[in-house]
UniProtKB/TrEMBL annotation:
Stretches assigned to the Cupin type-2 domain: 52-117
Species for this entry: Methylobacterium longum
The protein, known as: Cupin domain-containing protein
Signal peptide: 1-25
Domain of life according to the entry: Bacteria
Keyword Signal: yes
UniProt keyword list: Signal
Any single Pfam family the record assigns to this protein: Cupin_2
Length: 137
């Protein structure tokens, strides 16, 4: 049985362009994304996507992983990024982060809308996001 938490994680990842094979996919309530650039590289077998992500207040982007690196910048708003094995990081305008490939992470948005600019450098042909269980540590 698909749990609500796992379903939310899958839906959210697909919505922000992480299942970017269909860039026109409809986003679930609470998140809006726009893929601004998609190019092959930096090396054979990889592609780089740049995505603007708008999160509604109190939205939760559940635990997930990517088959490549995620690098982001907070344009506006406040949230908390949690990455397995690291201290929680508060995101506020000007804050940036990099998440290594296959590393579980999640984001809890704050009480106002948040805008992020995210660059994904991921393996082509693989699902760009996969739900992950919440770490127990």
């Amino acid at each position: 049985m698909l749990s609500r938490r796992m379903f939310t994680g899958c839906a959210v990842c697909a919505a922000i362009g992480l299942a970017a094979d269909d860039a026109s996919a409809q986003a679930p309530s609470g998140i809006k994304r726009a893929i601004t650039s998609r190019v092959d590289g930096p090396v054979e077998g990889y592609e780089t996507l740049q995505v603007v992500v708008d999160l509604e207040p109190n939205f939760v982007l559940d635990w997930h992983t990517h088959p490549g690196t995620e690098a982001g910048y907070t344009v506006g708003g406040v949230g908390e990024l949690r990455v397995k094995g690291k201290e929680a990081q508060m995101l506020k305008p000007g804050a940036s982060w990099v998440t290594a490939a296959e590393t579980p992470h999640m984001l809890q948005n704050g009480s106002e809308a948040t805008k992020l600019f995210v660059t994904f450098t991921v393996q082509k042909g693989k699902p760009l996001s996969s739900p992950a269980p919440a770490p127990t540590e």
